[in-house]
Amino acid sequence: MNYFKKGIITMIAALGASALFSISAFAADTGYVTTEVLNVRSAATTNSSVVTQVSMGSAVSIIGYTPGWYEINYNGKSAFVSEDYVRVGGADVSRNGGDRSKGQRVVDIARQYIGTPYRYGGMSPAGFDCSGLVKYCYSQMGINLNRTAASQTGNGYAVSKSELVPGDIVFFVTGGGGISHSGIYVGDGMMIHSPKPGRSVEMVTINSGYYANTYSCARRIF
Hints:
32% strand; 15 strands; alpha+beta; 222 residues; five-stranded antiparallel β-sheet; single chain; six-stranded antiparallel β-sheet
């Protein structure tokens, strides 16, 4: 839990429930959106109306905290965003650090399907192609990625190979053209992917051999 949120929760505990409605007088910070599209709501509930939407990487001015929600300043008025999709702190930390807990959950989902056969066009546990596996695992986290490996390079934001954390999507040029393969980075130089017909979902290294030679780029979603 970041220091901003710890301080707010401590303040709530000290001042009582009424503090929830006056926190904005005591703290302010900047948060960065970590999902592709985030709803900005009129109240701290999913049943409230959507005021607007903000895209990944957008900065929001946080003026308060209610458990599960950040209160933000939207055009001079109070609005609310889910804390699950906002990272508080400097832009470099937010965009380069990633949300490791969510990324690890994607990896944990992918691990369940090691041994699942490759199926061209497959996007379900009955069988996956490479981008189908990536898309499916992220869909279990509520994220709708593009369908093909090439188009998935348009999701999230770029990170260098040296900055990879679990859950990042790694891309490869395995043919004569552009991006043609994707996988989910596990950590320690490994990825989970669905390789090709006749093979099954597996975990392999990207730091040596074929996938080191064909590595192209990576994208971070969280």
